[in-house]
Amino acid sequence: MPRSENDNNSLKSALSDEEIILRAKRVLMTYLNMTENEAHTFIIKQSMNLRRTKREMAESILITYEN
């Protein structure tokens, strides 16, 4: 694959990650009355504590609260 395609795929993946993290932050803000900063910090700390990526943590939050 040419380098520009790799770069493009990486950017798409990063954008997708950010969209999922943003959705998870909104869920935390809605259900747990967190501020955006608190929700962001929560996702980061949980991902570090559980040794998971921020995306994995955000997906877990979405599964927990959106179902």
Task: Furnish the topology, listing elements before pairings.
Blueprint (H helix, E strand, L loop, with lengths): L2 H30 L3 H14 L4 H13 L1
Helix pairs in contact: 1-2, 1-3, 2-3
3D shape: elongated
Q: What is the number of strand segments?
A: 0
Element pattern in H and E: HHH
Distance between the termini: 39 Å
The count of helical stretches stands at 3
Helix coverage percent: over 70%
Mean pLDDT, as a whole number? 89
Q: Decide which structural class fits the backbone.
A: mainly alpha
Major β-sheet annotation = none
Q: Can you describe this structure?
A:
- It is built from 3 helices and no strands.
- The chain has 67 residues and is an all-alpha fold.
- Helix 1 (3-32) crosses helix 2 (36-49).
Short structural description:
The chain is mainly alpha-helical and 67 residues long. Helix content is 85%, strand content 0%.
List keywords for this structure.
67 residues; mainly alpha; elongated
